[in-house]
Amino acid sequence: xxxxxIRRLLQMVPTLLGAVLLVYVLFYFFGEDPAVILGGQNxxxxxxxxxxxxxxxxxxxxxxxxIYLKQVATLNWGRSWATNEAVSNIFxxxxxxxxxxxxxxxxxxxxxxxxxxxxxxxxxxxxxxRAIMVGAxxxxxxxxxxxxxxxxxxxxxxxxxxxxxxxxxxxxTNLAVYVPLPVILALAVGLAPQTRLYRSFFLDELGQDYVRxxxxxxxxxxxxxxxxxxxxxxxxxxxxxxxxxxxxxxGSFLIEVFFSIPGLGREVxxxxxxxxxxxxxxxxxxxALLTMLINLGVDILYKLVDPRxxxx
Length: 312
Known about the structure:
By secondary structure, this protein is mostly helical. It is built from 13 helices and no strands. It has two domains: about 1-75, no CATH class; about 90-305, MetI-like fold. Helices cover about 80% and strands about 0% of the residues. The longest helix is centred in the last third of the chain and has 38 residues, at about 220-260.
C-alpha cells in the first residue's frame, strides 16, 4: 500500500504541472487584459499602463511564468488584484460557507439515492419503478435555474418558509435557516441522475449468478441485497462519487450567487468578471489538486470495500 501511495503521489506531479501550465497559457495568451478591466471605461492609456506596471504585467511572459510557478510551489498567491485582500484570507474566510452548503448536499444526495435506487431496482418493472424513472427523466430535463427561480418564488415569497438570501456568523443558524432551501433544490436536481445510475448498477448485480446462488441457499432478501448486492455495487458507486465531488463543488458556485451566500464560489465568479488572476489561478490549481486526491482516495476505498481488489 505504501509503495502504491508513493507512486500515485509522484504521478500527480506532472499532471498538476500540466494543469498549471494550461491555466497560465489560457489566461496569458487568450484572456483579456486585466489592467483594462480594473481601470474601468474612463481610464486613460497612462492609467492603464500604470496598473500594468503595478501588477507586473509589463514584464516578459517567462518572468510572469516564473512568478506564477513560484506561487504554486509555495502556495503563496499574493493579493487579489481587485480588492487587495490576501488570496489565502479569501480562501480561509469564504471556504467555510461553501462547505456548509456543499457537504449536506453531498451526504444527503448519497444517503437518499442509494436506498431509492436499490428499492426500484428490486421492484424492477413495477408501477413504482416506472413512475420513479419517469419522474427522474422529467427532473433531468429541467434546468437547475428553473428549480432555483420556482423554488425561491414558491417557498420563499409565496409560502415564506425559507429566506431566499442571507447568511450569519452562526453555523447552526445557517444550517437551520439559510441552507435548507438551496440544499432541497440541489437534491431535487441531483437525486434524479444518481437514482437512475445507481439503479443500473444494482440491476446489473441482481442479474449475477451469485445472487441466484444466495437465494437458492435460503438467504433472506435483506441479506442478499445489503450484504452481497450493495457491497459488489459499491465499486462503480464510489467511482461515480469520485467524479461527482468536484462537480458538486463547482455547482455550489451557482447556488451561492442566487442565494447571496458569501462563499468561495461567489468570490470566484466575481474574480472571473474582474479578471482577478491570482484568485482564479489559485482556485483552478486547488481544484485540480482536489480532483487528483479524490481519485486517489476512491482507489484506496476500492480496497476497503472489496479485498479482492489489488492496487498496483
